[in-house]
Amino acid sequence: MATLGEIFFCTTKFIFTLLLVIKRPLIIIVLAILVCLPWKMVSQTDSTEAKKDTIDFYDMSLEQLLKMRAHGVPNELEKLINSLISVASKKPLNTRESPSIISLITADDILKSGARDLIDVLRTIPGLDFGVDVEGAVGVGIRGNWAHEGKVLLLVDGLEMNEILFATTQFGNHYPLDLIKRIEVIRGPGSAIYGGFAEYGVINIITKQGEDLNGISTGGIYGQGQNDYLHRNAYFAIGNKVNDLEYSFMGHMGDGQRSDQDYTDFYDSTYNMARNSNTKPNYFSASLKYKGLSYRWIADYYNTSMKDGYGDVIPGLAIQETFRSTFHEVKYVISPNKKLSITPRFTFKSQTPWSSKAYTGKEAYNRTATRALGNLTASYNLNRYVNFVLGAEYYQDKAVDHVDSSYFSNDEQEVAYNNYAFFTQGLVKTRPVNFIVGARYDKHNVYGDAFVPRVGLTKKYGAFHFKALYSSSFRAPSIENVNGSSDSLGIKPELTKVAELELGYKLGRRSIISVNLFDITTTDPIVYKTDSSNADLYVNEGGSGTQGIEAEYKLRLKKVNFGVNYAFYTAANKQQISDYSVSEDTSALLAFAKHRVNFSAIWNPTEKLSVNLNASIYGSRWAYTSVDSTDTSVLEKLPSTVLLNLFINWEPVEGLNIGLGCYDILNQKFNFIQPYNGYHPPLPGPSREIVFKLQYNLHFKAKNRKVTK
Amino acid sequence: MRKKQSIVNYKAIVIALLLLCGSFNSAKAQETDYKAYTLFVYNFMKYVEWPEAQSKGDFILAVIGDSPINKELQALASAKKIKGRNIVLRKCNTVEDTYGCHLVFVPNSKSAMVKALKEQTKDKPVLIVGEREGLAKKGASLSFVTEEGDELKFDINKKEIEQHQLKISSQLVSLGTLIN
After folding, report:
1. Which of A67, A216, A545, B165 is most buried (CB neighbours < 10 A)?
2. ipTM
3. pTM for the predicted model, two decimal places
4. Between A and B, how many residue pairs show a Cβ–Cβ distance under 8 A?
5. In Å, what is the CA distance from A40 to each residue of A3, A43, A52, A430, A505?
6. Inter-residue contact B17 to B9 (CB < 8 Å)
7. What are the chain B neighbours of A8 within 8 Å (beta carbons)?
């Protein structure tokens, strides 16, 4: 354990370091205060714990011996950073050596935060943010880049949630938060493993399965805004593992509202979003697993309503819009010996996203896309230090238009494409450094091929760790990108190169700090335009990218958990797409704050009670908020925003959690900004919301007692 | 055209990183839990059988050089016995000092001495336990491994163990990894 003085010295140096890098002393001073505050608690708690070491270990059984850790019984922080994750490498590695910049969120983090939906959870991750697209849809941005269309892959238990017509994912009261076991986020490219939707990042949601549920889980949320309800959801899950058979079933339904505020378009038409911006999740999932064989089914019917359309207020009643997806997966893990595993996997998904009737300015849209995918992956451990992964994948996409007199660009109501891919990876762990080398090659029958290699060096040396990563990645044009491309120009995958460096240091056993730099360069990005006849057109044009720094500090004490992170990006040294750029500040991009700080402080006065105060602090953001007399959209710099939240969770009896909180205490009414110049004013977010949450877990059998020290 | 002004000073980044790296030297590394290592050593003593001639009198447990494990092994020696025999901890500075010992623990910093120790104890009933990963391949009977997730495990060089006239129980073998 480092002494108080040493820790203080390190922290001071770190803060000075940030001061040198970023000329924003105010933010750094805030960070400095937040980071320095808990030091005294570190010292006190550790010394108290030392006195508790009273149990005689010498009589442990051999089985118990196997649970021993080289660095002692792990505390909450060590459990977190030693968690084995495979999202970045397929081969499980701990977070500090995993070859990507990783964020990990546990079920306990979610429970204690009182998060209402995935947006609340993901916005606490450095570099992740949200903006509005069209028709009230909210999508994700990463490291300053708008990533809504096919640039960030969302996985739920390994199944790709991105709809394949436009490759988007919809956020906001969508996925069953209370049934999430953990979320692994790659804040960098993942194409070398996952292909064309993982260009800038991967969000891997792992839900609770039979063994995790071990019984019944049920609960719900009610959230009341200033003008109307904002959340009212319920969920139910059952699951268990009996010998080699594991099963689960879960359902999550509800009704939420994007906002209860007024939306005003560029021409001063207004409507109140209460009862006109519904977000209704209908998510069902079932899984069955016997030894290596597993089957998974997910039905995700997400229904929304909106009146914002493409920017102008739609007269009359709100338009209902549906995003319907059904997934099937059959997987068999064959392990002929301890060294080799071969996994054939077949998935089928059917998606009907963005489906709505015609409204002023837009035709009806009702297209269904299916993807049948086969994947064969082999993993071979030559020994403890060398692992190889080799795989092949083939998928066939089909899309059908259900609207009379609506056709694809081939003048048919059906299109079909296919794609095959090969991927490989080598991981070598040596004493000085771990090497990882991988690549993926995709060949599509229309837009051609993409080859994306990556190389990484990682290692932890006691308390210190580093990662040096260089990756190529790509965004595969979606079905509608191909359909909307010009015959003469065609369309091809956009390519990205990302360099990342992370340094991390464990300050004693209960806190860790990490800092990473990134540089993203995208060439030939796929850009939406309209042609001379005002028809949709997708083209590869110009370049884009950002550079930046992200820093994260975590402290886990017995009664206090504290975390703070900071994210900064600049687009100053990169090519820019004019529709995404900010003419008044070439270092900024539309919608996303260059500076972001998140902090979370959890106080556990007793084992059954937690009080969480957390905040997301946004620097100024740029948005198009009006039009001038020539109907040209006008930029405006929106002031800094602080989203401050408080949540209290109480477990009066084993398994029952009752939570009460207030989101957006300062009533800042965070706006979702459109990250491109699409004539859509910022979409109001919810007002201050009082949240009540209930969760009950009934276990079929008591879990085994852990070996504790 | 307006000159692009980056708020990031790249020279400063380099200096900052150097400073940051410099600060790593000023704090202690993550502490190894030698109590866990001691537990393993204790079980090695219990589940390895020495020849009849070496199964009487005190059980001599040697550690080469100074190591934080000495304190834990001393606590073990004070608290426990092996099959009714007292455990005596002996601190050794050289390979020769290990003469007559039943078990020799080789700390990380003395890993280079394994080869000499192997020569010195050739055909003698001595169990050589290496702290550093990989020492079982270099002549130690057993060596520790920290797996992903920080789990403490061990490698077994059964050939070496048998050459030292020792018998390892199948229970212990099932917990470790045989390297030959």
Report:
1. A545
2. 0.76
3. 0.85
4. 157
5. 11, 5, 20, 38, 19
6. no
7. none
